[in-house]
Design brief:
This protein is an all-alpha fold. The chain has two domains: 393 residues, no CATH class; 79 residues, no CATH class. It is built from 19 helices and no strands. The chain is globular. The chain starts with a helix and ends in a 13-residue tail after the last helix. The relative contact order is 0.10.
Length: 473
């Protein structure tokens, strides 16, 4: 729910920004955010994920915190020196004097990553989830306030930094309460962090490359306006993968703890559950994107509907990535980061090569296709590795149920859209999109509740009313 609220706030803020400033400033902003995401990988080389893993094991928590913080601070200083050295090239690439903003955003991103890793490692994922909408809401409020006051591109950067500062303060408070204190680490603690991070850093690279490689490469070939349209399509597609990401964050410390106790059967059950539900929003979202993509993008402004085809392809990429993330999450949780590393090497190599080649040949459509193909390849490899070390079964029945419900939903939305287009029932794009989304979502979940016993059970355990009327028993 936190992730959904966060994404909804970001969606509304992006619509306002796009309408007030246009696609150009939005493209510059996302180019800088994408660049910082890459720099953040260099600035912490997987240490945050290593901190989560070691702290979740329950031993020497205070020592690992101080050891990880020391490494990240040192790497940030080196990254800052590099940015200052090449600031002229940075300005030429971005098309805006953003060096100071890049350094400031990099700092808050690294500190936020450290705080998040502590919250996850300490099993405070509910607090970590709560911070996401707070960060997005704070960012949006500051950005919109500055735009109203007359600022332009700078407002986007200042708001971005402000949102992070707020959640860093809140997260630090909760971690300080949960930690027993700080203790001087020994070389052993540094070594164990580095041993995990030397494999897991590529997982961070894979995550950022999935979201930003195409945008970074597009920066060399197309205008900032086109990047703004592409980024809007990405934001919509990534909204659908939020539930999958929430599953990964929630289940990682549980699998890690069970794995350290050699409870392999329990780990396998969690993997099966994660695969059962990671497509819960992505599968119907694919049908919704195909049918309503152009109308949804029209909400951003007249420049944006041309990204409808890109949006559909990117939803496919996110669907595949949702399953891949669950499998890699399992490998990292059971302390097999070297296997996740192999998957990520394949993804990184294929993603860079395909993006350069296909963007050169086909433009931004090539970028979306390159991302989708590289994810598909890495998904197959991830399944191979997980299947070799964990005795689990793919929940094919539950996945098929989701596809059946999505097909029925798509049919109803298609008929409703045809009726509205033919007879002009509303003649209002936003109202049409809102009503069709509600109709589609209601149909999908109603059908799924009827045909899926597992889904009924999970919902029944998490809602305050009885679902026995829908049960076939």
């Amino acid at each position: 729910m936190s992730n959904l609220v966060s994404s909804a706030l970001g969606f509304l803020a992006t619509i306002y920004i796009a309408r007030m400033l246009g696609a150009g400033p939005l493209g510059v902003y996302h180019l800088v955010v994408g660049l910082v995401s890459w720099l953040a990988i260099v600035g912490e080389v997987g240490i945050s994920r290593a901190i989560s893993k070691r702290i979740s094991e329950g031993e020497d928590q205070a020592e690992y915190v101080l050891a990880g913080t020391t490494i990240i601070v040192g790497l940030f200083v080196l990254s800052t020196c590099g940015l200052l050295l090449f600031r002229e090239r940075l300005v030429n690439y971005v098309g805006y004097p953003a060096t100071g903003y890049v350094i400031a955003i990099l700092l808050v991103v690294l500190v936020n990553g450290l705080v998040n890793s502590l919250l996850v490692g300490l099993h405070l994922v509910h607090v970590n989830g709560f911070l996401s909408p707070v960060r997005t809401g704070g960012r949006a409020l500051v950005q919109i306030a500055l735009i109203v006051a007359g600022a332009s591109t700078a407002a986007l950067f200042i708001g971005h930094i402000a949102g992070y500062i707020v959640v860093i303060g809140i997260g630090t408070y909760f971690t300080a309460r949960a930690l027993p204190g700080l203790s001087r680490p020994r070389r052993y603690h540094f070594d164990r962090l580095v041993d995990f991070a030397k494999f897991s850093w590529l997982g961070n690279l894979q995550s950022q490359m999935f979201s930003y490689t195409d945008i970074i490469v597009l920066g060399f070939f197309v205008s900032s306006g086109l990047i703004g349209v592409y980024s809007a399509a990405w934001n919509i597609a990534e909204f659908l993968i939020l539930f999958s990401g929430a599953l990964s964050s929630t289940l990682f410390p549980e699998m890690s703890s069970l794995s350290s106790k050699d409870n392999s059967r329990a780990v396998a059950r969690i993997v099966e559950q994660s695969l059962s539900f990671c497509g819960l929003f992505l599968i119907p979202g694919l049908f919704g994107g195909m049918l309503l993509g152009e109308r949804i993008l029209r909400i951003y402004g007249p420049e944006f509907p041309r990204g409808a085809t890109v949006l559909t392809i990117l939803i496919v990429a996110n669907l595949l990535m949702g399953y891949q993330n669950q499998l890699l999450n399992a490998l990292n949780a059971i302390d097999r980061p070297e296997l996740a590393f192999r998957v990520n090497v394949v993804f990184v190599g294929s993603n860079v090569a395909l993006n350069i080649a296909l963007i050169y040949l086909y433009g931004w459509i090539g970028a979306a296709i390159a991302t989708t193909i590289s994810v598909a390849i890495s998904l197959v490899l991830a399944y191979h590795h997980v299947d070799a070390v964990i005795d689990f079964e793919v929940p094919a029945g539950e996945i098929v149920n989701q596809w059946i419900a999505a097909v029925l939903m798509g049919g109803l939305v298609y008929v409703s859209l045809w009726a509205e287009t033919t007879y002009g029932l509303l003649n209002h794009n936003v109202a049409t999109v809102g009503i069709l989304v509600v109709i589609g979502a209601g149909t999908y979940f109603a059908v799924l509740l009827i045909i899926s016993r597992q889904f009924r059970t999970v919902v029944d355990q998490n809602v305050p009313f009885d679902l026995t009327l829908l049960s076939s028993e």
